[in-house]
Each structure stands twice: as structure tokens, then as C-alpha cells.
Amino acid sequence: MNSISSILLLLLTVFFTSSIEARVHHLKWDVKYEYKSPDCFSKLSITINGLSPGPTITATRGDTVVVEVFNGLLTENTAIHWHGIRQLGTPWSDGTEGVTQCPIQPGETFVYRFVVDREGTYMYHAHYGMQRSAGLHGMIRVLVPEGTREPFTYDGERTLVINDWWHKSTFEQATGLASSKFTWIGEPQSLLINGRGRYNCSMAGPMDVCNTTSPECSPASFVLVPGKTYRLRIASVASLSAFNLELEGHNLTIVEADGHYVRPVVVKNLNVYSGETYSVIIKADQDPSRNYWVGLNVVSRKPGTQTGTAILNYYPNHPLARPPTAPPAGPMWNDVEYRFNQSRSIVSHPEYVEPPPRTSDRLIILLNTQNKIDGYTKWAVNNVSFTLPLTPYLVAIKQGLRHVFSQKPAPETYDLKTYDIHNVSHNPNATTSNSIYRMDFGSTVDVVLQNANTLNPNNSETHPWHLHGHDFWVMGYGMGKFDPEVDPKSYNLVDPIQKNTVAVHPYGWTALRFVANNPGVWAFHCHVEAHFFMGMGVVFEEGVEKLGKLPTSIMGCGESKHR
Ligand SMILES: *[C@@H]1O[C@H](CO)[C@@H](O)[C@H](O)[C@H]1NC(C)=O
Ligand SMILES: *[C@@H]1O[C@H](CO)[C@@H](O)[C@H](O)[C@H]1NC(C)=O
Ligand SMILES: *[C@@H]1O[C@H](CO)[C@@H](O)[C@H](O)[C@H]1NC(C)=O
Ligand SMILES: *[C@@H]1O[C@H](CO)[C@@H](O)[C@H](O)[C@H]1NC(C)=O
Ligand SMILES: *[C@@H]1O[C@H](CO)[C@@H](O)[C@H](O)[C@H]1NC(C)=O
Ligand SMILES: *[C@@H]1O[C@H](CO)[C@@H](O)[C@H](O)[C@H]1NC(C)=O
Ligand SMILES: *[C@@H]1O[C@H](CO)[C@@H](O)[C@H](O)[C@H]1NC(C)=O
Ligand SMILES: *[C@@H]1O[C@H](CO)[C@@H](O)[C@H](O)[C@H]1NC(C)=O
Ligand SMILES: [Cu+2]
């Protein structure tokens, strides 16, 4: 290339990267099974272009992302959900099999196209069966346009995708959960940070391949330059576990949650529930002559898994030099109050408050229970265990196919007066249904998630609920039974954080508010993969009549016709 054309190219590059015009990112993904040893134990994992976690998507606010997904799984369908992206105007790209699209069959290619309309940290993952926990997941970073101020500054950025990992296939897991002789998936074999963890190979069976010197399971290492400040973007794609993340000797300042700026909170360690994302700021201000641990611990369930570790490396120490200390053990796993308090401390950054509507048009109370149906163990919401229809709701509603799912309205509440949330239910029998909640377009909806005892005495679990297509305001958290006469009086109407995923703590309640103004059909479900698989979810519909013609690519299954 001569010098004139290189100058031209340079000018063009400068022009395009500095112009505020939105860009289109074209990605081509090949999804397939491969043997991987993320924790030294060799196992089939789902990869994207050879990677698990898949490639990080980086785009700038306002850009369009186009992902061409080729399903190379040979014997399995798939679908990919863009978690936290609201899909304004593109509800058919939400990637929720059975809700917004038919599954992508083996050998088929499906094209997702959507705008990343707001900056922040998000994730993507499979939304078909239990494939997320087989490794089909990754991070999405949406940057602010150049020159845009954020309410914090930093010198560098690092990403952490955190996950729990099983050696059994998701087929074995799903079959155990769906059998009348119920088999629980159990605690994970290891915890992974950026797809790297460690299993104790001396516990592996004689037929297993487990190699502690495999380079695939050398720990993740985060290189820090002494004196500098870093933004860590954190996404939990966990299948089951609630996590606590601690960086030995370093406080974390929480500055972003699910794509919204947080009034900065300094914590020693951060609780992260499956489906949540955070940004925290850390300062590399400790003794630079050594490295430090990143410790990932299970909370809320009695841990049965070794602490997941990575290394915080102070340049120029060796990136893998082992810290001289023991990895952080985190807070007590059953200290519910600690986690409850931290949840409550997260509110909107004062300069970025978008106040919620002061009142709502509808209150839906969703009681979360573990149940029995014909001898099978399920999770249910107001006594209804959710099942997906064969025809995706979006197509069914748009095409007026009323017979393909239950038209009976899903229940608005439970028996508030008599149901004892603190004890095992006297009658755990529930029913299955694919009924949904239909919202008036533009209305304000309050949803209260009410937790309860499971089928085991003295046990209530943490459920991280994720809403597709919207952010909701977190109006309040409480312990015990929500009282609709009293508790709304203590809602935060001033500066509630907006999120897409929120925890309901053991025996507690969490109140949300959102505006039903995004035409489409949207899943709202527990992000614990096994819980959603066992029926812990609901579906909201609003404004489908406002949508134009649906793309035929989402059709072809059940009674959805290519027309
Ligand atoms: C690995 O497992 C073996 C056998 O159970 C045990 O003796 C050993 O202490 C374990 N090692 C670690 C590092 O936990
Ligand atoms: C373990 O992995 C290392 C590094 O890849 C390799 O050199 C070694 O042969 C492997 N050991 C076994 C038993 O496969
Ligand atoms: C972390 O924060 C606590 C409480 O604010 C403070 O006492 C401690 O000195 C801080 N530690 C570091 C390493 O900054
Ligand atoms: C939680 O917050 C309450 C009220 O501020 C406080 O009294 C309590 O000590 C905190 N508990 C824990 C475990 O942090
Ligand atoms: C629950 O349903 C089972 C049948 O699946 C039935 O045998 C049992 O009596 C029911 N329990 C109650 C309390 O109604
Ligand atoms: C649970 O039930 C037992 C007996 O049925 C009762 O004694 C106890 O008070 C109940 N617990 C709560 C918290 O209501
Ligand atoms: C669920 O339905 C059963 C009757 O089938 C009833 O006894 C029970 O109280 C209901 N539970 C809830 C939470 O409404
Ligand atoms: C219930 O479990 C909690 C810990 O989760 C424990 O502190 C408490 O003692 C238990 N209560 C009973 C009655 O077993
Ligand atoms: Cu759950």
C-alpha cells in the first residue's frame, strides 16, 4: 500500500470510529460439542467457535448486533437468549425457545438481530433445555459512545464470567429431575472463573480423564499494574449456585448492576446470583511484591464444592505465582441477613435516577413453592407448574391460534390468609399449565415474589428471578409474608435500582414494578436452570397486536406455519 492510501485509510478509520453513527457487528457462531477440561476433568461441553465461555460481544450503545448461529450439535436443538437486552422492537430475537421462537434444529442457521440500546454488562446463554449449564454462555459488554462520561473512572477493565460445573451430562441431569424416582443434580463438582477451575483428580473414577497439568485448567490470572484502578465486569451464568466473590485484600466498589449505575457501595465481598451482572471498581493498592486470590464461594446452599479460585497478579510478578495465603472463605453460607442487607444497599446512582411510576395498575403476587404432581417433584408459582407449549406464544398470539395454549388466566395471587410459608405445605399437590398473564399495554405492573418452605422441613432456597424484555424497579425486599396492606408503604419510590434479575431470599419477598410497554411475549422465571426446568416460571404478554409481520424464521414447529 502506498503512503497516500494508508493516510486515506487512517483518516477513514478515524472518521468511522469517532463518528457517533451506530455500527453493525456481524458475528458468525458455530455451536457444537467438544471435549473440554475446564476443571482438569475431561467432559463434553457446548462451545461457540471452539470456546466456552463463548466469545465476549463488545459493542457501543446504539449499535446493532447480528449473530448468525449455526447449530452444529448434531442431535440437539438450541436457541440463544441475549440476557438483559430488552429487544425493543425485535421480540422475535429474544431467543427463548417456546416463547419467542421455534428451536434451531441441528444443521440449521438462525440469525439474531438486535440493537444494544443501553450501555452496561450483560450476558448471553442457551435457552433450550439445560444447555446453559453445558457451557453455552458468555458476556456482552456495551460501551458508552466515546466522550460520554460515566459516574466513575478507571485505567483498565477485566471481565469475569462465573459458573458452577457438573461432570454429568445435562441429559442425565434433566432425566433425573423429570423422573418419578426423582434424582437431584447435587452440588457442582467445581466452580469456574472464565471457564477455569480445579477438580481434585484423585476423586475421579478409573475411566475418567482428569489431568491436573492440562493447560485448560490452569487458573485465570488478572494482571494489575500497581497503583492503577480497574473495572471488573462480572456475570454469573451459574446453573444453580448463589455466589460470593471476594478479592483477597481488596475492597470492591459496586458501580453497576444489570446495566444500571449504582450509588457506589464499598463491600468486602459481593453476592452474585445467577443471571446477575455487576461492575465493581478495585484499586491495585496492596503490597505489589505478591499475588492475591480471587475466591468464589457458594452461599445460600450448604457448600459441597471447593472454593473456586483465580489469581490477582501484580505486574511484574509471575502471573501464576501462588499467593502465600489460603483463598478467602467468604461469609457464612447461611447468613441470610448478610445477603439481604447487601441486596437492599444497592440503589440507583443519584445522577441516573429514573423514578418509577408512583402507583401501579395491577398487583400480581407469585408464591414460589416446591410441589408434587402425580408423584413427580416440581416447582410451582401459585400452585401452577409451568410447561412450554409446542407452538411459541409469540406466533400463537399473533396468528390467533387460541387452542395451542391454555386461555385460562394464570392466578394473580395465592391463599394469602391461610398458607403457611414457614412450614412444609399440608397439601403439596399442584397442577401443570402453560397459561400466561396478559398485560394492558402501557400499564404499570407490580409483581411480588413470595418465598416459602420447600418440601424439606426448615428449608427455603434463594431464587434469582429474571424478566425478559424489561428492566424492573426493585421496590423493596422483606422477610416473612408480604402484606399488601402494609408493605407497599415502605417501597422505595425515590431511587430504586432497575434490574433484570433479582433474588428472592429464603422465607422473604421481593417487590418489583415495571411498565408493560414492550410489545411481545416475555418469560419471567427463576434463573436456576433446574428450577425453571421443573416449572418455576411464568409468561407475560403485552401489545402483540402492535407488532408487524413476524419473521418466518421463528416458525415451523407445533402449529406455527411459515406464512
Ligand atoms: C483430593 O482427594 C483425596 C482423596 O479423597 C484427598 O486425600 C486429598 O486431600 C484431596 N486433595 C485436595 C487438595 O483436596
Ligand atoms: C496431561 O497434560 C499434559 C499437558 O497437556 C500432557 O503433557 C500429559 O501427557 C497429560 N497426561 C496424561 C496422563 O494424559
Ligand atoms: C476496606 O473497607 C473497610 C471498611 O470501609 C476498611 O476498613 C478497610 O481499610 C478497607 N480495606 C482496604 C484494603 O482498602
Ligand atoms: C443488617 O442490617 C441491619 C439493619 O441495618 C443490622 O442491624 C444488621 O446487623 C445487619 N446484619 C448483617 C448480618 O449485616
Ligand atoms: C396428592 O395427589 C396424589 C396423587 O398424585 C394423591 O394420591 C394424594 O392423595 C394427594 N394428596 C392430597 C393431600 O390430596
Ligand atoms: C410449623 O408447623 C408446626 C406444626 O404443624 C407448628 O408448631 C409451628 O408453629 C409452625 N411453624 C411456623 C413458623 O408457623
Ligand atoms: C394447591 O392446591 C391444593 C389442592 O389441590 C391446596 O390444598 C393447596 O393449598 C394449594 N396450595 C397453594 C399454595 O395454593
Ligand atoms: C433451621 O435452619 C437454620 C439454618 O439454616 C438453623 O439455624 C436453625 O437452627 C434450624 N432450625 C431448626 C428448628 O432446625
Ligand atoms: Cu429457583
From TrEMBL:
The broad enzyme category this protein falls into is: oxidoreductase
In what residue span(s) does the Plastocyanin-like domain sit?
31-143, 158-316, 422-543
Q: Which metal ions or organic cofactors does this protein require, according to UniProt? A: Cu cation
| InterPro entries cross-referenced by the UniProt entry | Cu-oxidase-like_N, Cu-oxidase_2nd, Cu-oxidase_C, Cu-oxidase_fam, Cu_oxidase_CS, Cu_oxidase_Cu_BS, Cupredoxin, CuRO_3_AAO
Keyword set includes Secreted: yes
Q: Which GO terms describe its molecular function?
A: copper ion binding; L-ascorbate oxidase activity
Quote the subcellular location field of this record: Secreted
The record ties this protein, via Pfam families, to: Cu-oxidase, Cu-oxidase_2, Cu-oxidase_3
> Which catalysed reactions does the entry list for this protein?
4 L-ascorbate + O2 = 4 monodehydro-L-ascorbate radical + 2 H2O
Main location as per UniProt: secreted
Stated EC number for the protein is 1.10.3.3
Which SUPFAM superfamilies does its entry note?
A: Cupredoxins
Q: Which UniProt keywords apply?
A: Copper, Disulfide bond, Metal-binding, Oxidoreductase, Repeat, Secreted, Signal
**Similarity comment:** Belongs to the multicopper oxidase family.
PANTHER family named in the record: L-ASCORBATE OXIDASE, MULTI-COPPER OXIDASE
Q: What name does this protein carry?
A: L-ascorbate oxidase
The species is: Vanilla planifolia
